[in-house]
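histidine kinase structure dump, as promised
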Amino acid sequence: MANYESEKLQETLLDLMRSRERERQLKEENKAILAGMAAMAGANNKRQVFNSLLGVLSKFIGFEHALVLTREDELSPLKELVTTCRYFESSVWPIADTFTRSINGESIALFDSRQVVEFQELPSNLMQYCRSVLLTGVKVSSGDAVLIFLHSEKGKFSSNCKRVLEHFRPLLERAIIDIDYRERLQSLVTARTLELSHSQQRFKDFARTVGDWFWEIDTEYFFSYISSPSLSTHSIDSASILEIFSHDPETAERLKARFSAEQPFEDIEWQLPPSEGSGWMSISGTPYYNKQGQFLGFRGTTKDITSRKQHMMELQKARQQAEDANKAKSQFLAMMSHEIRTPLNAVMGLMDLLADSGLGKQQLSWIDQMDQSAQLLLTIINDILDLSRIESESFELYESTMRIMDSVDLVVTQLQEQANKKGVLLNAKSDPDVPEYMFGDKNRVSQVLFNLVGNAIKFTDTGSVDIYVSQQDQNLQLTVTDTGIGISEEAQAMLFNPFIQADGSITRKYGGTGLGLAISQHLVNKMGGKIILKSTLGKGSCFTVNLPLKAMTVNREIKVPSFKASTHLPPLRILVAEDSPTNQLVVKLMLEKRGHQVNIAPNGQMAVEMIADGKGYDLILMDISMPVMDGIQATKILRSHGIKLPIIALTANVMRADQEKYQQVGMNGLLAKPIIVKELELILFESQLALANGDYKH
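structure tokens r here:
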């Protein structure tokens, strides 16, 4: 009995010792868990978390290496997340029954891992670390995880190790979840950092490509960011952006004003000093604010625009050279016009005098042919001058109230004889709805009509040329229709180009320069209208001109009686200022033939002196280009001396700008060279009429 009780007491004492040992062990394990959790709380990365976990478990489980495997979904294999052995880094593991059991929460100790499917595919150099294996699994938010402990000797993991894992499961779960979270966070940070790095590099590449310099300043104008320490040849060695413009106070003040007003600005240009290459820069900027709307400073770009500036300067220089060349061309053409018109005046004047000298019929026909040739030469000169002025954009319209049928009648009168010689009927008709008076440039409308009708007569051998005036949609419409040779579709495409005719053979057969239609189109475009051509080869052509001319209402003017009916008017005493002996002869003969007294002055100074002598002249015909003193200066002097008798410019310089200049100095009119007899007689008649009425004061 005593022995039995003694045995019971011994068993009780032994259980008590075991219980105390378990309590001590649990206390140590709990203490280790708390220490591990504290260590993991202070960890900065997944490696520190993993090492903190292993540091706790190594006191209770004897292992050489450990690793954590994870997967994102049930179809994916397990991949290494963290390990203490570099040979297992980036390893991939298949999932079979053993890993599935561990993922479901079972702790498993393997005494011969070679018999387990998951380890059979490992290479031999890794199997030497896996002779003893202890593993368990946990569920994480992103998927599944398996914690594996390895030893190179067999039988190192007992059932007590499995109990320890079960006891430490909360710590294991927290550690693995933390490691997984930190891994994913690190991956995200790495990806974002890489994207940011790529974005920054892309930004730098773009900036380098476009040549921009990026900057940011605070509210005190100090740099908070610059993309490069240098700007072109200028080194940025100052803290304030305004110090860059120390050599250019005006630009600095402009920028400071924009900064103070928080106003964005674009492309403010400035030039670097000569010591830095004199390059050109352009700066742009915009203010930026925080979320609360507080002004933080400015951000912007600066560009090196030296190449662009040089290109612009080269373009400006080329444009100036082109303008100078165009001006020189105009001056040359004006000079050539004067030089050609002056001898042509003598030729045409002498022909006119010769025609009235009692010649025979055949000789008169020769004179007529000569006169036509001279008129053609004069037309060519006028066309070239007009085209030159139009192309140089120095051409202006001079609009006033006009009677459209006056232009039509003028063209018909001038071209009627040409049509009669060819046996072509020339008809003109106006629609009753056409306003009698309109606002436009009468001379240019007449010129367009003259070119179109002249061409129609030239290229029509039989039939008729018809002019029809109508109104369409508040526009004046002039239609010129002929029954001539017509124009092919190919030729119509380039017909309005200068010096172009429908066919080269036409030039030889019909003559002409090919300028008429080009000038007409320019004139019509200038007046805001358009020309429409319809033509059939061999049947004829129809040119339609639409002009946006406004209708006008005016009082009818009383016409001055024709000079032909006024044979009782007194003769004139005329002073002709002309330096060319030939033209002196021609003008004198033309005037004396009409019963007038003529004196000649070879230059402007002589004309002034002859007027001062008090010989009592009624009219002065004043050449413009003369030696000693030109006609402009002579007219100024005469007007300054109170001489009021009419002074008519006798010149080959007949451009509109020239005519305005003549009028400004006090001239009363213009008689162009070569002298047209009808124009001369009209001027003489007006002067005789004024003299008869007592309007002249010598």
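The first strand starts at residue 65 and ends at 71.
lmk if u need the other ones
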